[in-house]
Amino acid sequence: MIEVRDLQVRYGGRLVADVPALDVGAGECVAIVGESGSGKSTTLLSLLGLTENAEISGHVRVCGVDVLSASQKALREIRGARAALVMQSPQAALSPATRLGVLLRRALKLHGRPATDEVMARALEAVVLDREILRRYPHEISGGQAQRFAIALAIALGAEVILADEPTSALDVTVQAEVVGVLRRLRAERGLALLLVSHDLALVSTIADRVLVMKDGAVVESGPAAEVLAQPSHPYTRELLEALP
Fold this sequence. Notes:
By secondary structure, this protein is α/β, with parallel strands linked by helices. The chain has one domain: P-loop containing nucleotide triphosphate hydrolases (Rossmann fold, 3-Layer(aba) Sandwich), CATH 3.40.50.300. The protein is 35% helix and 26% strand. The protein has a six-stranded mixed β-sheet, sandwiched between helices. A four-stranded antiparallel β-sheet has the order 2-1-4-5. α4 crosses α5 and α5 (143-156) runs parallel beside α6. The mean pLDDT is 90.
């Protein structure tokens, strides 16, 4: 679903992300971890062509689309409908004056999807949300509900890939577990491909199949999550693990 080779992202000639290889298949979860400024979020956004004013080189395919050579029309067609971005604070991306049900219907119609009650109900059920939430405004729901609504929107649109940027960092531990549980179940039931950006190695250890560790824009270590987190080979990875509470 995601295939990356020799990706380099530059701003003003300065290299901010250098990823030799990154693959995410159907039903897999790959995590990119590192501290703030390590280049992980830039990498994520570049996969959907969302890095404005950046110089990007390499090979990037998402859902069969060559992102670096595709037209804006082609990119708009895969964003949301096939590859969905879930941000740290999804409420900020939702119109505060519009009920969630209206937002959901508009998104479905925009992408040519049936905006029926049945479609919306199934999507909400998949993320364990009651249909009553569709009558609420974004400021009337919790952070955990907002994250699950963002995931429900991706499901309703038929997304095959979810790219999640720190999706649980603003949530308390209990709600984090709920959101991670939803993502894990969707992988198993729907074959969803998940690319997760996080600084939280404890969270990553519960869901990721493979891990890329980034520092100062470069990948310093990668491999199966169980191996990398149990026996890290790079000093920076060891530092991240030692910093866990």
